[in-house]
Design goal:
The structure holds 2 protein chains of 2 kinds. Chain A is an alpha/beta fold. Chain A is built from 10 helices and 10 strands. Chain A has one domain: 3-Layer(aba) Sandwich (Protocatechuate 4,5-dioxygenase, Chain B), CATH 3.40.830. An 8-stranded mixed sheet of chain A has the order 6-3-7-2-8-1-10-9, sandwiched between helices. In chain A, strands 4-5 form a two-stranded antiparallel sheet. Classes of the chains: A alpha/beta, B mainly alpha. At the A-B interface, helix 7 and helix 9 of A face helix 2, helix 6, helix 7, helix 8 and helix 9 of B.
């Protein structure tokens, strides 16, 4: 049987991807960020997931103005890295898992999550930067990736509670798949940042630390954080953190944080990263 | 008044702003294509006239008035296409939106970013 055995969360800002692509990861500015992901690289080499369900948001790239799905599952066989205005990132094509995605779609929709299904789309930095942070620069990504795009660009994003419940439903859906697969769910985006207006540059390390604490040990409490509190406390773009709750929800009630990393700044953003493993059952 | 209207220096891109900014953001999206970037750079005023933007939006785009663009329904992830067309970074634009030099802004970020203290409610700033 398939199982979600662990989850990973990480910021996904494009500047980290650019640092990888331009060979700057050892520069004074970037070194502390990339050293923070060395553990993840070692851990994932042992953990060897077959499939990553990668929760991210599109940044006005494939999903712009015309269609704005709250939750959209990538069901295609492959997804090209997008040209976001400065050419495609030099990273491998993302290989999907259409069979598992079809199973997830059916299971989740009957579980009352009314997903949008996408067979063709390009994936932007929101999806490819986390892969680069964890896998480095391989010739091909070492596992299949099912994109799960969440609208966090046009307010309101789904509530934290809805995201946590979707995570629970994902766990069930994966467990009812009759092939032996080791599956991870990654939640990306955040942590505190604001990329707009006179308050641009907003960082709230206290909020971020508390969010990580709650996500690990009291996810229901993390899920009850209201949108107004994300906006006010973590910045207008910090609200992306609701996506971390999908990853958390896909694990057991108790988890073990085997990795916790936090660093300010990367460009305009607080970088946060967790690896969580199931701790009961 | 919406509950987030009391956050200082922040334009929440809600459905109302998205409606208001539809043409503005559509213009920004068009800059994802190299041909369009070339045409835009060759004659900005002529290029932007084809998108159905309001006069205020056109002025904000041509003047690179980022905060005004936000106020008129622009969203940063769309506007980023214009930053990149100009050969500028998001941090450059953020510094301008914050009314700071890029150097001062970068230093603020290196020292931990803009503190939330005094920046949660508009009234804190009026009192200050």
């Amino acid at each position: 049987m398939a199982e979600v055995f662990a989850a990973l969360t990480t910021s996904h800002l494009p500047a980290m991807g650019a640092a990888v692509d331009l060979g700057k990861t050892r520069d004074e500015y970037w070194r502390p960020v990339f050293e923070g992901y060395e553990f993840a690289k070692r851990w994932i080499a042992d953990a060897r997931p077959d499939v990553v369900i990668l929760v991210y948001n599109d940044h006005a790239t494939a999903l712009g103005l015309d269609v704005i799905p709250t939750f959209a599952l990538g069901c295609g066989a492959e997804f090209e890295p997008a040209d976001e205005g400065w050419g495609r990132r030099p990273v491998p094509v993302v290989k999907g898992d259409p069979e598992l995605a079809a199973h997830l779609a059916q299971s989740l929709i009957l579980d009352e999550f009314d997903l949008t299904l996408i067979n063709r789309m390009d994936v932007d930095h929101g999806l490819t930067v986390p892969l680069s942070m964890v896998f480095g620069q391989p010739e091909a990504w070492p596992c299949k990736v099912i994109p799960l795009a969440v609208n966090v660009v046009q307010y309101p994003p789904p509530t934290g509670n809805r995201c946590l419940r979707l995570g629970h439903a994902l766990r069930k859906a994966v467990a009812s798949y009759d092939r032996d697969l080791r599956v991870m769910v990654w939640g990306t985006g955040g942590m505190s940042h604001q990329l707009q207006g006179p308050r641009a540059g907003h960082i709230n390390s206290d909020f971020d630390a508390r969010f990580m604490d709650l996500l690990i040990d009291a996810p229901e409490q993390a899920a009850s954080i209201r949108h107004i509190d994300y906006l006010r406390e973590s910045g207008s773009e910090g609200i992306e953190l609701v996506m971390w709750l999908i990853a958390r929800g896909s694990l057991t009630a108790k988890v073990r944080a085997v990795r916790r990393f936090y660093h300010v700044p990367a460009s305009n953003t607080a970088v946060g990263h967790l690896i969580l493993e199931n701790a009961n059952e | 008044m919406k509950e987030y209207d009391d956050i200082p220096g922040t334009y929440v891109f809600d459905a109302e702003r998205a409606r208001q900014g539809y043409h503005l953001n559509r213009f920004c999206m068009s800059l994802m294509h190299e041909d369009n970037r070339k045409r835009f750079k060759a004659d900005e005023a002529a290029y932007v006239s084809a998108f159905g933007m309001s006069e205020e939006q056109v002025d904000a785009v041509l003047g690179r008035s980022w905060n005004r663009m936000l106020e008129l329904g622009g969203n940063v992830y769309f506007m980023a296409k214009l930053f990149f067309t100009d050969g500028r970074s998001v941090q450059f634009a953020c510094a301008q939106m914050a009314g700071m030099s890029q150097d001062a802004y970068a230093k603020m970020m290196l020292s931990g970013g803009r503190s939330p203290d005094g920046n949660r409610y508009k009234r804190e700033q009026n009192d200050g």
